[in-house]
């Protein structure tokens, strides 16, 4: 069953285009992570936060990615890393046009 | 500019099909909220959490929805409500097939 992984952490930049320049190689590498279907990259200069919303093909792959990614973020000096793995309620999501194929 | 709203809160059910039955009318009403593009409904019986990932057309609509929804959840007796509004880094999201049209 597909799982949604929600991650955020304290972040003081770079944001926007500079974030893109700094992290495009990392983004490309994420396509090679087992079970990744997609990632939405989130950022807030106002709140000094960044993170991601991920869809994985199953729970084991979501858990493995979260463990690896948390360690990587910690190694980058980032803190207050919060990761949560959720089921998607597909019936309710379909009512609201959520972009997740069955 | 589109904004992503991430919400979660403590939740002890109903989950899965029973959640669908309980909340389908609420889901239908959410389609009428100003600026809503989509919502992904999240739930975790394991973690005793539920929430949603929303895409809105702009920040004012995301903020207004978060204020209204937080009050509604509180009135339903739910607690530890956490809402965060993010920009989407479109370039990085495109690299990872994130389902957000430009």
Automatic annotation (TrEMBL), chains A, B:
Signal peptide: none annotated. InterPro entries: Dimeric_a/b-barrel (IPR011008), YdhR (IPR014910). It comes from the Bacteria. This is Putative mono-oxygenase ydhR. It comes from Colwellia chukchiensis. The lineage of its organism: Bacteria, Pseudomonadati, Pseudomonadota, Gammaproteobacteria, Alteromonadales.
């Amino acid at each position: 069953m597909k799982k949604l992984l929600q991650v955020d952490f304290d972040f003081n930049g770079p944001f926007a285009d500079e974030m893109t320049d700094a992290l495009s190689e990392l983004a490309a590498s994420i396509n090679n992570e087992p079970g990744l279907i997609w990632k939405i990259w989130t950022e807030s200069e106002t709140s000094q936060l960044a993170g991601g919303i991920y869809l994985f093909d199953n729970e084991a792959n979501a858990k493995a990615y979260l463990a690896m990614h948390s360690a990587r973020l910690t190694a980058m000096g980032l803190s207050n890393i919060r990761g949560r793995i959720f089921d998607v309620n597909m019936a309710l999501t379909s009512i609201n046009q959520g972009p997740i194929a069955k």
